[in-house]
Design a protein that fits this description.
binds aspartic acid, Glutamine Phosphoribosylpyrophosphate, subunit 1, domain 1, alpha+beta, single chain, about 325 residues
Length: about 325
């Protein structure tokens, strides 16, 4: 039994391991651990009290994947339901002919299955951070002056899009990958995405193959960082495909990260991944020095931190640098 997670998964990894030890599946462990991060009000990039979009609305993305069957479930741009990973899992479990539900459809599905709903998804402190984050533009004055939801439906927002950046300068998405006692691999990713994003913007977390991929035969990978890059390069799937092609885990993960160097365009940010192979070897990589991930095996009483390897990537933000 093994669980690896992004560093912010520390709040949930212990109970995730308890789920595995109690006979739970890899998916049970992933869901258990992720829910504890989604419930944490101090985690501003996952679940309840994450940083909202430009309009001050919290939109959540999540996905979960089963490595034996490759069954997957995902939700995107979903409002009002804090446990996005559980709704994503139900997309998988209820054997829908669909893998990914977005926006109002995801919310409707969540309501239909009785998922836990929450009227107020943000604390006052996060609302204030949102107003402050929008402060540098004239358009934002108009946005803020006209209390939502009185803002005209067609209010222009494009001028604000370059503000879509994580104010904490951290990749706050949570990743969990688990191997259960039957040897099945499960992987999950949950996020509120980039703060102040354009409404309806969907990142890599709910895109199977971009931010999340698991295949018992080879291994699994999950990402945090600038989702647009992982979508364009198919990063999580790349790692698993490179394993399938016979690369070592180290080579597979480094090659997928280095692939990101070839992306063109004006917006290139950071990327982080965690990955494991079918033998339970694991690795974490980041484009920022000093980042860590966490690991716990069945015989460890608590998790341990591991250093992520560094793979430097160029940074470009609208042609003028990120700051
Ligand atoms: N990958 C997430 C996204 O692009 C954000 C993050 O990890 O910081 O939505």
């Amino acid at each position: 039994m093994l669980i690896i997670a992004s560093h912010n998964g520390a709040i949930g990894i212990h109970q995730a391991m308890a789920a595995l030890k109690g006979g739970g599946s890899a998916l049970d462990a992933v869901e258990t651990g992720t829910r504890l991060v989604e419930a944490n009000p101090d985690e501003h990039s996952v679940g309840y009290n994450g940083y909202p979009n430009i309009l001050g609305e919290l939109e959540l993305d999540a996905s979960i994947m089963h490595g034996r069957t490759l069954d997957s479930g995902a939700v995107a741009a979903m409002r009002g339901f804090p446990y996005a990973i559980s709704v994503a899992r139900q997309v998988l479990e209820r054997k829908l002919p669909h893998v990914l539900l977005a926006g109002e459809g995801a919310e409707r599905f969540a309501r239909e299955i009785g998922a836990e709903e929450r009227d107020e998804m943000l604390t006052d402190a996060v609302r204030q951070a949102w107003s402050k984050g929008l402060a540098p533009t004239r358009l934002s004055e108009r946005l803020l002056a006209q209390a939502l939801p009185d803002l005209p439906e067609d209010a222009p927002l494009l001028g604000l899009v370059k503000l879509a950046t994580d104010p904490e300068r951290v990749a706050g998405t949570v990743n969990f990958i688990a191997i259960d006692s039957s040897g099945d691999i499960g992987s999950g990713v949950s996020t509120s995405g980039w703060a102040w994003k354009y409404p309806g913007r969907i990142g890599d977390s709910p895109i199977i193959g971009a931010g999340n991929y698991a295949d018992n035969r080879y291994g699994a990978c999950a990402c945090t960082g600038m989702g647009e890059m992982a979508i364009r390069a198919g990063t999580a799937r790349s790692v698993v495909l490179y394993l399938q092609m016979g690369m070592t885990l180290e080579a597979a993960a480094h090659t997928a990260m280095r692939d990101l160097r070839d992306l063109g365009g004006d917006y290139i940010g950071g990327m982080n991944l965690i990955a494991l192979d079918r033998h339970g070897e694991h690795i974490g990589l980041s484009s920022e020095a000093g980042r860590k991930y966490i690991v716990q095996t069945g015989d460890m009483a608590q998790h341990a931190e591991r250093q992520r390897g560094l793979v430097e990537l160029p940074r470009r933000w609208g042609g003028a640098g990120r700051d």
